[in-house]
Automatic annotation (TrEMBL), chain A:
Family of this protein: Belongs to the ABC transporter superfamily.
TM regions (residue ranges): none
Alphabetical list of Pfam families matching this protein: ABC_tran (PF00005)
Keywords recorded for this protein, A-Z: ATP-binding, Nucleotide-binding, Transport
GO molecular function: ATP binding; ATP hydrolysis activity
InterPro entries: AAA+_ATPase, ABC_transporter-like_ATP-bd, ABC_transporter-like_CS, Metal_Ion_Import_ABC, P-loop_NTPase
Name this protein carries in UniProt: Metal ABC transporter ATP-binding protein
Entry keyword Oxidoreductase: no
Residue ranges annotated for the ABC transporter domain, each copy included: 4-236
CDD domains hit by this protein: ABC_Metallic_Cations
Lineage top rank: taxon: Bacteria
Length: 249, 294
């Protein structure tokens, strides 16, 4: 069963094409790394799927139904840099935001919601920081708060935008554990990822993207030297490292 | 002292003070979201842009009618906001420059129209001059009722949409992902800001009403790290500024209300900057000293 079917997505920025004709289908319960050079449109792809930015064309089906009907099944972890961490709020409050879609208009989160949010913080090892102002958290801790918020959303398909960027070892481990737990529960996860060295460890599927998909499929088959060279084009400095790794592996 | 007691026991004064408290609280409350959204200056431009609206309403109708004035004010205020956003969207001009241009053009037109009215339409009787710096003393019961009811509605709506405003300001993309209509929420927020500006200009004036949106939340931020408490403290600071400024302005005959309100707000801001619970400069100095000694 395909959790997600993406058909012919195209996006332009200022009349410049950012994504061209992206089509792929993601099987249920898979962990997909979205990989490609800077400016390849990785974040743009998730944002256009989630309808955060307008598409020129394209269609998204979630478990065979239109995206709009299935929105509650979708969770999103934005890039950490997208919000103002000086905002006057604490970790628990941010996690509670994950429940806003369930709570509905004009109502306030109650005791049950707070309890659940607290459990989500525990799952990422952040329960001791619940009342901490968010600007006083380290980058990794902020990322874990975002993870807890995604957990609180209780979605079936998760999109994560560079969750591993600039985090400490504890957070990296927390993200890994969460990804594995989600996989076990049959949830589907798509992650924008930069670090080529860890792709094989983290993901069972790969989307190699450079404005248009170069390849999509199981990591063993897709994550090869030739495909990477095609994706990254001239950016060989990264590839030299990678090719030695691949040949050794 | 006697004059103050006499002043406070006058039912007209009590009306004016109630109005100023509600207006101050409403602007402080909604101002918190405007500040966090980093749109304080748009509020300022909107306020200045209400002047031509008031003048045009007078030129067309030829009578002094508060509802007409406020309608005109709202229309040109909205138009200015639209222009600011359209300029940013369709050109390479950044928001700050766009605000600067629109603010001065609208305010310029307002001043020209005001001069025309004063010279040709017996504008001294129109009381339009009072719209520049505000004049609480010149307001009649109906004006105050407009302020009180308008402010009360703004406070009510802000409380109702608190959760939605919070997420739409903090993380709009995530909110959109949840299916929350962020565009609509932002429009409601903007409408409430226009509301405060429009009902407030008669009391505080078009030049300075924005200070009542900007300064109270800035001061409140020095006392707390929680949005709920921040917006409440901001409301209290706004209300306090409103009531003190209005009192001084009404007792000291002819003193414009707006500047006095702003002076009180600024004094409260200065106090917060120095002594704020967690972030005040002097508080921080003593905290760091304390840490060094232990």
């Amino acid at each position: 069963m395909n959790a997600l079917e993406i058909k012919n997505i195209s996006v332009t920025y200022d009349k410049q094409p950012a994504l061209e004709d992206v089509t792929f289908s993601v099987p249920e319960g898979s962990l997909t790394g979205i990989i490609g050079p800077n400016g390849a449109g990785k974040s743009t792809l998730i944002k256009s799927i989630l309808r955060l930015i307008p598409k020129l064309s394209g269609d998204v089906k979630v478990y065979g139904k239109p995206y709009k009907e299935q929105r509650k099944m979708i969770g999103y972890v934005p890039q950490r840099s997208e919000v103002d961490w000086d905002f006057p709020t604490n970790a628990l409050d941010v996690v509670l935001m994950g429940r806003y879609g369930h709570i509905g208009w004009l109502k306030r989160p109650g005791k049950k919601e707070k309890q659940f949010a607290m459990e989500c913080l525990e799952k990422v090892g952040m329960q001791d920081y619940a009342k901490r102002q968010i600007s006083q958290l380290s980058g990794g801790q902020q990322q874990r708060v975002f993870l807890a918020r995604a957990l609180a959303q209780d979605a079936q398909i998760y999109f994560m935008d560079e969750p591993f960027a600039g985090v400490d070892a504890a957070t990296e481990k927390a993200i890994m554990n969460l990804l594995q737990e989600w996989k076990k529960q049959g949830k589907t996860v798509l992650v924008v990822h930069h670090d080529l060295q860890t792709v094989r460890d983290y993901f069972d599927h790969c989307l190699l993207l450079n404005k248009t998909p170069v390849k999509f499929g199981p990591t063993d088959k897709v994550f090869t030297y030739d495909n990477l060279q095609e994706t990254y084009g001239g950016a060989l400095s990264i590839l030299t490292q990678e090719s030695t790794l691949l040949q050794e592996g | 002292m006697n004059s103050l007691i006499e002043f406070l026991s006058n039912p007209n004064t009590q009306w004016v003070l109630t109005g100023s408290i509600l207006l101050g609280f409403a602007s402080g409350l909604i101002g918190s979201f405007v500040l966090l959204k980093k749109q304080s200056l748009i509020g300022d431009a909107m306020a200045h842009a209400t002047l031509p609206g008031v003048c045009i309403a007078y030129i067309i109708s030829g009578v002094k009618s508060t509802p007409l004035f406020l309608t005109g004010a709202a229309l040109t205020g909205l138009l200015a906001t639209y222009f600011i956003q359209a300029i940013v969207k369709h050109s390479r001009i950044k928001t700050d420059a766009s605000i600067g241009v629109v603010l001065s053009v609208f305010f310029g037109i307002g001043i020209v129209l005001l001069t025309y009215i004063t010279k040709n339409m017996g504008g001294n009787q129109s009381g339009l001059d009072d719209f520049i710096f505000g004049q609480a003393a010149s307001m009649v019961r109906g004006d105050i009722q407009t302020i009180a009811v308008g402010s009360f509605l703004i406070i009510l709506f802000t409380s109702l949409f608190f959760k939605e405003f919070k997420i739409a300001v903090f993380d709009p993309n995530y909110a959109k992902g949840l299916g929350i209509p962020v565009g609509l929420i932002n429009s409601i927020l903007m409408a409430l800001v226009i509301g405060v500006v429009v009902v407030g200009i008669q009391m505080v004036g078009v030049v300075l009403i924005a200070a009542l949106l900007i300064t109270p939340p800035l001061a409140a931020r020095y006392w707390t790290d929680r949005l709920g408490l921040m917006s409440f403290i901001s409301g209290i600071i706004g209300a306090l500024s409103g009531v003190v400024g209005t009192t001084v302005s009404t007792i000291g005959e002819g003193l414009p209300t707006g500047p006095l309100i702003v002076l009180v707000t600024s004094a409260l801001f200065l106090l917060s900057l120095l002594f704020g619970k967690s972030k005040g400069l002097i508080t921080r100095f003593f905290i760091s000293k304390g840490v060094r000694h232990t």
